Amino acid sequence: MTTNYDFMNYWLSIDSIQNKVKKELENVLQAEYSLSLKEFYVLYYLSMAPDKKLRLQQLQEMIGLSQSALSRLVGKMEAKNCGALEKHDCTDDRRGTYTHLTNLGEQKLQKSLVSFREILRLHLSAIDVEGLIKQLVEKL
Protein backbone atom coordinates (compact mmCIF):
# COMPACT_ATOMS: atom_id res chain seq x y z
CA MET A 1 0.00 0.00 0.00
CA THR A 2 1.43 3.38 -0.95
CA THR A 3 0.76 6.60 0.87
CA ASN A 4 1.31 10.27 0.23
CA TYR A 5 4.40 10.00 2.43
CA ASP A 6 6.27 7.20 0.62
CA PHE A 7 8.70 9.76 -0.79
CA MET A 8 9.83 10.44 2.78
CA ASN A 9 11.13 6.89 3.20
CA TYR A 10 13.39 7.32 0.18
CA TRP A 11 14.49 10.78 1.32
CA LEU A 12 15.29 9.52 4.82
CA SER A 13 17.26 6.58 3.36
CA ILE A 14 19.38 8.96 1.28
CA ASP A 15 19.81 11.29 4.26
CA SER A 16 20.86 8.41 6.51
CA ILE A 17 23.44 7.19 3.99
CA GLN A 18 24.85 10.70 3.63
CA ASN A 19 25.07 11.19 7.40
CA LYS A 20 26.87 7.87 7.90
CA VAL A 21 29.37 8.62 5.14
CA LYS A 22 30.00 12.17 6.40
CA LYS A 23 30.60 10.87 9.93
CA GLU A 24 33.11 8.29 8.67
CA LEU A 25 34.82 10.89 6.47
CA GLU A 26 35.08 13.29 9.40
CA ASN A 27 36.55 10.59 11.67
CA VAL A 28 39.15 9.40 9.16
CA LEU A 29 40.18 12.87 8.01
CA GLN A 30 40.63 13.98 11.62
CA ALA A 31 42.52 10.86 12.71
CA GLU A 32 44.83 10.58 9.69
CA TYR A 33 45.28 14.16 8.50
CA SER A 34 44.12 16.41 11.39
CA LEU A 35 41.45 17.87 9.09
CA SER A 36 37.78 18.45 9.66
CA LEU A 37 35.46 17.84 6.73
CA LYS A 38 35.00 21.62 6.32
CA GLU A 39 38.79 22.11 6.28
CA PHE A 40 39.05 19.40 3.62
CA TYR A 41 36.44 21.25 1.55
CA VAL A 42 38.43 24.48 1.88
CA LEU A 43 41.52 22.74 0.54
CA TYR A 44 39.52 21.15 -2.27
CA TYR A 45 37.80 24.36 -3.41
CA LEU A 46 41.08 26.27 -3.32
CA SER A 47 42.81 23.55 -5.34
CA MET A 48 40.15 23.93 -8.05
CA ALA A 49 40.27 27.75 -8.14
CA PRO A 50 42.37 29.76 -10.61
CA ASP A 51 45.81 30.34 -9.07
CA LYS A 52 44.62 28.24 -6.10
CA LYS A 53 43.22 31.31 -4.35
CA LEU A 54 39.77 32.61 -3.46
CA ARG A 55 38.31 35.55 -1.61
CA LEU A 56 37.02 34.64 1.82
CA GLN A 57 33.52 35.67 0.76
CA GLN A 58 33.64 33.16 -2.12
CA LEU A 59 34.80 30.39 0.21
CA GLN A 60 32.10 31.30 2.70
CA GLU A 61 29.41 30.71 0.06
CA MET A 62 30.98 27.42 -1.04
CA ILE A 63 31.55 25.99 2.44
CA GLY A 64 28.34 27.23 4.02
CA LEU A 65 29.80 28.79 7.16
CA SER A 66 29.21 32.19 8.68
CA GLN A 67 31.83 34.85 8.02
CA SER A 68 33.24 34.59 11.54
CA ALA A 69 33.31 30.78 11.54
CA LEU A 70 35.10 30.73 8.19
CA SER A 71 37.58 33.37 9.36
CA ARG A 72 38.43 31.25 12.40
CA LEU A 73 38.77 28.11 10.28
CA VAL A 74 41.00 29.80 7.69
CA GLY A 75 43.03 31.49 10.44
CA LYS A 76 43.68 28.10 12.01
CA MET A 77 44.74 26.67 8.64
CA GLU A 78 47.04 29.65 8.02
CA ALA A 79 48.74 29.30 11.41
CA LYS A 80 52.39 28.34 11.38
CA ASN A 81 51.67 24.95 12.96
CA CYS A 82 49.37 24.05 10.03
CA GLY A 83 50.65 26.11 7.08
CA ALA A 84 48.09 24.83 4.56
CA LEU A 85 46.94 28.33 3.57
CA GLU A 86 48.38 31.82 3.18
CA LYS A 87 46.43 35.05 3.47
CA HIS A 88 46.86 37.87 0.95
CA ASP A 89 45.21 41.27 0.82
CA CYS A 90 43.18 42.03 -2.27
CA THR A 91 44.99 44.68 -4.35
CA ASP A 92 41.84 45.97 -6.06
CA ASP A 93 39.72 46.11 -2.89
CA ARG A 94 41.52 46.78 0.38
CA ARG A 95 38.60 45.39 2.36
CA GLY A 96 38.94 42.01 0.65
CA THR A 97 41.22 39.17 1.59
CA TYR A 98 42.31 36.18 -0.44
CA THR A 99 43.44 32.89 0.93
CA HIS A 100 45.87 30.82 -1.12
CA LEU A 101 46.60 27.09 -1.01
CA THR A 102 50.25 26.43 -0.12
CA ASN A 103 52.32 23.47 -1.34
CA LEU A 104 51.86 21.91 2.10
CA GLY A 105 48.08 22.35 1.78
CA GLU A 106 48.13 20.77 -1.68
CA GLN A 107 50.10 17.78 -0.36
CA LYS A 108 47.67 17.38 2.54
CA LEU A 109 44.74 17.49 0.13
CA GLN A 110 46.25 14.91 -2.25
CA LYS A 111 46.93 12.47 0.59
CA SER A 112 43.48 12.92 2.11
CA LEU A 113 41.76 12.49 -1.28
CA VAL A 114 42.98 8.89 -1.33
CA SER A 115 41.21 8.15 1.96
CA PHE A 116 38.16 10.18 0.91
CA ARG A 117 37.75 8.16 -2.29
CA GLU A 118 38.23 4.86 -0.44
CA ILE A 119 35.55 5.70 2.13
CA LEU A 120 33.10 6.68 -0.60
CA ARG A 121 33.86 3.48 -2.50
CA LEU A 122 33.42 1.38 0.63
CA HIS A 123 30.09 2.92 1.63
CA LEU A 124 28.51 3.58 -1.76
CA SER A 125 29.51 0.51 -3.77
CA ALA A 126 26.94 -1.68 -2.03
CA ILE A 127 24.10 0.85 -2.39
CA ASP A 128 22.05 1.68 -5.46
CA VAL A 129 22.16 5.44 -4.90
CA GLU A 130 20.86 6.21 -8.38
CA GLY A 131 17.96 3.82 -7.83
CA LEU A 132 17.09 5.47 -4.52
CA ILE A 133 17.11 8.92 -6.10
CA LYS A 134 15.04 7.71 -9.05
CA GLN A 135 12.47 6.17 -6.69
CA LEU A 136 12.36 9.38 -4.64
CA VAL A 137 11.72 11.47 -7.75
CA GLU A 138 9.00 9.07 -8.90
CA LYS A 139 7.21 9.38 -5.54
CA LEU A 140 7.21 13.17 -5.68
Task: Walk me through what this model shows.
The protein is mostly helical. It has 6 helices and 3 strands. It has helices at 6-33, 37-48, 56-63, 67-78, 103-124, 129-139, and strands spanning 53-55, 85-89, 97-101. The chain has one domain (33-139): Winged helix-like DNA-binding domain superfamily/Winged helix DNA-binding domain (Arc Repressor Mutant, subunit A), CATH 1.10.10.10. Strands 1-3-2 form a 3-stranded antiparallel beta sheet. Strand 2 and strand 3 (97-101) form a beta hairpin. Helix 1 crosses helix 5 (103-124), helix 1 (6-33) runs antiparallel to helix 6 (129-139) and helix 2 (37-48) crosses helix 5 (103-124). It is 66% helix and 9% strand.
What is the topology?
Layout: H1 6-33, H2 37-48, E1 53-55, H3 56-63, H4 67-78, E2 85-89, E3 97-101, H5 103-124, H6 129-139
Antiparallel strand pairs: 1-3, 2-3
Helix pairs in contact: 1-5, 1-6, 2-5
In short:
It contains six helices and three strands. It has helices at residues 6-33, 37-48, 56-63, 67-78, 103-124, 129-139; strands at 53-55, 85-89, 97-101. The two termini are 16 Å apart.
Name the structural class: mainly alpha
Helix content: 55-70%
| % residues in beta strands | 5-15%
Separation of termini? 16 Å
Question: Can you tell me the CATH topology?
Answer: Arc Repressor Mutant, subunit A
Give the CA-based shape. Answer: elongated
E-strand count:
3
Describe the largest sheet: 3 strands, antiparallel
InterPro entries: HTH_MarR-typ, MarR/SlyA-like, WH-like_DNA-bd_sf, WH_DNA-bd_sf
Domain HTH marR-type: 28-132
Keywords: DNA-binding
Protein name: DNA-binding MarR family transcriptional regulator
